[in-house]
Design a protein that fits this description.
phosphoprotein
């Protein structure tokens, strides 16, 4: 399986749509895509993970590195559309306390 990433700019918000599996084999593709993101002070970056059906610790590492880069440049990162399984992964590692995370159920309510 592959990972597919697409971005759409909406004013000061950059929305990224990630689809597929994030593991040791696909993580380099995701990392490269995230490295191309222009981070501007005050910008909101929202990554939609509603179509991510699997993620391992390699994926978590990529999001942690990207989070650090975004916050270092005074922008904000929000992960949205996470399945219960992905939310659990972030909770177990304590990353849900660090990052702004919205489940797919919360996204549907909007």
């Amino acid at each position: 399986m592959n990972v597919n990433v697409q971005f759409r700019e909406d004013g000061n918000v950059l929305r990224g749509y990630i689809e597929g599996e994030i593991d040791t084999y696909t993580a380099p593709v995701l990392r490269e895509e995230l490295e191309t993101v222009q981070i501007v002070e005050g910008r909101v970056i929202e990554l939609d993970l509603s179509k991510v059906n699997y993620m391992d610790s390699t994926g978590l590492g990529i999001f942690v590195a990207f989070y650090k880069k975004v916050t270092r440049d005074n922008a904000s990162l929000k992960l949205v559309g996470l399945s219960n399984r992905l939310v659990r992964l972030f909770e177990i590692t304590g990353l849900s306390e660090l990052m702004s995370i919205e489940t797919d159920e919360e996204l549907e309510l909007k």
